[in-house]
Amino acid sequence: MPETTNHDGKTPLTADVLRDLIPSLSTKEELNEWERENIIEGREWAERDRTSVTEMLSEGYIRRLHLKMFDQTWKRAGQYRKTEKNIGVAVHRIREEVAVLLGDAKYWIEHDTYSADEIAVRFHHRLVQVHPFANGNGRHARLMADVFAMKRGRPVFSWGAADLVKTGEARSHYLRAIRAADADDIQPLLIFARS
Length: 195
What we know:
Elements (H helix, E strand, L loop, with lengths): L14 H6 L7 H21 L4 H4 L2 H12 L23 H17 L5 H15 L6 H15 L17 H14 L4 H7 L2
Helix pairs in contact: 2-4, 5-6, 6-7, 8-9
C-alpha cells in the first residue's frame, strides 16, 4: 500500500508499525527522531561496555546490542523476527546463518584473513543480508561494525557522514555499495564506510 501524507506533509505510521511500537507516535518523522534518541543510548552503552572482541562475536551480544538500541521503541527489540521480509534469509534460517557468520568472523580474526576494517565491514554486510530483526537491521549492523572497529583500536566508521535512514544521495550510495558486496565486491562498501 502506498504511503500517504496528512495535511501538514508528515507521513502517518501504518497499523502494523503502530502495533509493534512502545511509544505513542503517529508519524514516521516522530518515529525516526524517537529511534535516533534510543540508538544514541545504545551507542553509549556499547562504548562503555567492556565486552572483548571475541565475546561480542556471539548471538547474545548481537541481540543485547539490538535491545539496547531499540528497547524504548520496539516491543520485540533484541528478538529475532518471526515474519518473512522482502530482504533477508527465511525466518527458520536466522539462527543458523547468524552462527555461520559468527564462526566466519572468528576465523577471519584468528587467521588475519582481512584487515580490522574489512572484517568489520564484511561482518556488517553479512548481518544485513541475514536481516535478523524486524526493524533497525542496517543501523544495528553499522553499530556492530563501529564497536568492532573501536575494540580493535580503529576509529568508528563515518558511513558517508550522513543519515542513511532518509532517502537521498548518501543512502543511494550506501545501497549501491551493499549491492556490490552482494556480488562479492566489498571494496565500494569499504570505501563508503570510511567516506
